[in-house]
Specification:
single chain; binds N-{4-[(3-aminopropyl)amino]butyl}acetamide; 17 strands; about 650 residues; alpha/beta; 19 helices; binds zinc ion
């Protein structure tokens, strides 16, 4: 459906006219650097370009007092000394004769973006604006922010478009206290912010930036603060914050629109943030938000002061909004202790207001699980994923930093990431892997499946050579039948297309009786033809268990399996109910093509048995899979359910 890019050159006009070390980082080049890089990457050209308009007095009045708007209007005619004097009345603010015009364009850009998304002209978009907005308050400029662009957009989406639930995700490294103040008693706006906090010793030094500020009155639980108490937070910490805190609440909230206060001072290299997340991380954060609100995501620039890091991160965000797959993340995906403490304290503060957190609070920990495994296993990055039953399929490839390169030349790996860049050059080596030209292919023509597919999915004509297919099929009795053999030939051809980087994803149908054998072949083929690691997700029960090599290269997840069991950290099954109707193939195809999944609706509570099964599995897997860890180790020792763990099948063996 498309991505809007809202911009106006006039927004480069406002700038600092006097000496002020605190404010000098907010400069016009921020916009030009981002835009130039978008052009250079061919990303700007792929967007629907919209010229920003000025927000009206009434629109600014949605969140600001008329007196404050008049005050800012008057700065247009002030001389430099008067501008400087007025600026001094606010914290970290400069005014320029063009500030009022720029700030009205910045707010107006957000409104245009919201209009474009909510009228269905585009699916999502980014407004490249300055001055930024999230620190600005009803009657005060603050922290380079004059009008609160994102807050105005939220109020406008409620008033003009009649929305009832808006999620604001503020990934800027500073606390958007302006947005918090404006919506703290409003349950229709869920505000999430992470920010450098250092126990209150970082700007803006507010008590109300801490995790225990959760909103007031009707808005209790609709302000979510995640204070980072150390600098150096990286990809794993950011992703953990999304997975363990933001997303559970966001799914339960079920927003109709997602607004992003997209500050990139939270990225590596930024002098303000001092954090370590690489630009690719913003592709993943964006991607994680795209599953919400039917994919209606409006991002608006806030901070970001390292021009190179900013430009790269903006590209990652836009590229993902456009539907390109997210590039691999560098580094081990292990959140640091301080990040876990912050996430846990925010979860504890929010737990009274959110069912999704209450469920996860239950526990089934094992004392034995606390012992570290022999091999330090931490992150698992699958390069290929197979999703099976009722129809097998697959997306996404990567070669993360520090991992061995693909076995075969010409594999799907991002060429720029091989060989792995030195840690210091993370920013100099943008991942230039082009998205494959074919996004989704249908390999097999089972008539009932073809029916539910989107019309523009490409039907695959090709098949692997007959002899080769027969050779792969030979060890498997269930693959002897002609029908199964034909299906296998098409699947092998699809796999090769993916491993060569020509096809991004695909769906193949196979006879149910041959499902397990087909998967065995697909896994073997994938691993012997260039994939380092492979994720296999099976929905429902197969005709027999898979034949896994247990070498850690295949991660097997059976949803809707017989029982909750972790046979190893690489072989997991849960008994959750699965819906495997033919329509599932249609939804799967749309999502693989990059469409947003349908909203899950107001959250229903999982059954106690399902929750128990999941908690049991989490207890089993947490010691090996560091990304599952949300509790502190000390806390887990005290956990009353800990005794359960002694029954863990392999939790206590790692000594
Ligand atoms: N070194 C935005 O990013 N100065 N505003 C902090 C601490 C103010 C940041 C000084 C930073 C304002 C939108
Ligand atoms: Zn900031």
């Amino acid at each position: 459906m498309g991505t809007a890019l809202v911009y106006h050159e006039d927004m480069t006009a406002t700038r600092l006219l006097w000496d002020d070390p605190e404010c000098e980082i907010e400069r016009p080049e921020r916009l030009t650097a981002a835009l130039d890089r978008l052009r250079q990457r061919g990303l700007e050209q792929r967007c629907l370009r919209l010229s920003a308009r000025e927000a009206s007095k009434e629109e600014l009045g949605l969140v600001h007092s008329p007196e404050y708007v008049s005050l800012v209007r008057k700065t247009q005619v002030l001389g430099e000394e008067e501008l400087q004097a007025l600026s001094g009345q606010f914290d970290a603010i400069y005014f320029h004769p063009s500030t009022f015009h720029c700030a009205r364009l910045a707010a107006g850009a957000g409104l245009q973006l919201v209009d474009a998304v909510l009228t269905g002209a585009v699916q999502n978009g980014l407004a490249l604006v300055r001055p930024p907005g999230h620190h600005s308050q009803r009657a005060a400029a603050n922290g380079f922010c004059v009008f609160n662009n994102v807050a105005i957009a939220a109020a406008y989406a409620k008033q003009k478009h009649g929305l009832h639930r808006i999620l604001i995700v503020d990934w800027d490294v500073h606390h958007g206290q302006g947005i918090q103040y404006l919506f703290e008693d409003d349950p229709s706006v869920l505000y999430f912010s992470w920010h450098r906090y250092e126990h209150g010793r970082f700007w803006p030094f507010l008590r109300e930036s801490d995790a225990d500020a959760v909103g007031r009155g009707q808005g209790l639980g609709f302000t979510v603060n995640l204070p980072w108490n150390q600098v150096g937070m990286g990809n794993a910490d950011y992703v953990a914050a999304f997975l363990h805190l933001l997303l559970p609440l966001a799914f339960e909230f079920d927003p109709e629109l997602v607004l992003v206060s997209a500050g990139f001072d939270s990225a590596i290299g930024d002098p303000e943030g001092q954090m370590q997340a690489t630009p690719e991380c913003f592709a993943h954060l964006t991607h994680l938000l795209q599953v919400l609100a039917g994919g209606r995501v409006c991002a608006m620039l806030e901070g970001g002061y390292h021009l190179e890091s900013l430009a790269e991160s903006v590209c990652m965000t836009v590229q993902t909004l456009l539907g390109d797959p997210a590039p691999p993340l560098s580094g081990l995906m292990v959140p640091c202790q301080s990040a876990l403490e912050s996430i846990q304290s925010a979860r504890a503060a929010q737990a009274p207001y959110w069912k999704s957190l209450q469920l996860q609070g239950q526990c089934g920990q094992v004392l034995g699980c606390r012992i570290p495994p022999q091999a330090p296993c931490s992150g698992y990055d699958s390069e290929l994923s197979l999703d099976v039953t009722p129809v097998p399929t697959s997306p996404s490839t990567h070669s993360p930093e520090g991992r061995p390169p693909p076995l075969l030349p010409g594999g799907p790996m991002c060429k720029a990431a091989v060989p792995a860049p030195a840690p210091s050059s993370l920013l100099d080596q943008p991942c230039l892997c082009p998205a494959p030209s074919v996004r989704t292919t249908v390999a097999l023509t089972a008539p009932d499946i073809t029916l539910v597919l989107p019309p523009d999915v490409i039907q695959q004509e090709g098949s692997a050579l007959r002899e080769e297919t027969e050779a792969w099929a030979r060890p498997h009795e269930s693959l002897a039948r002609e029908e199964a053999l034909t299906a296998l030939g098409k699947l092998l051809y699809l796999l090769d297309g993916m491993l060569d980087g020509q096809v991004n994803s695909g769906i193949a149908a196979t006879p149910a009786s041959a499902a397990a054998a087909t998967l065995d072949v697909a896994i073997q083929r994938g691993l012997s033809h260039g994939a380092q690691r492979l994720l296999c997700v099976a929905l429902g029960q197969l005709d027999r268990p898979p034949d896994l090599a247990h070498d850690g290269r295949t991660l097997w997840l059976n949803i809707g399996g017989k029982e909750a069991a972790a046979l190893s950290m690489f072989h997991v099954s849960t008994p959750l109910p699965v819906d495997s109707t033919p329509q599932l193939a249609g939804i799967l195809a749309r999502v693989l093509r990059g469409e947003a999944p349908p909203s899950l609706g107001p959250s229903s509570v999982a059954s106690p048995e399902d929750v128990q099964a999941l908690m049991y599995l989490r207890g089993q897997l947490e010691p090996q899979w560091k990304m599952l860890q949300v509790r502190l180790i000390a806390e887990a020792w005290l956990c009353p359910g800990a005794r359960l763990c002694r029954r863990g099948r392999w939790g206590g063996q790692g000594k």
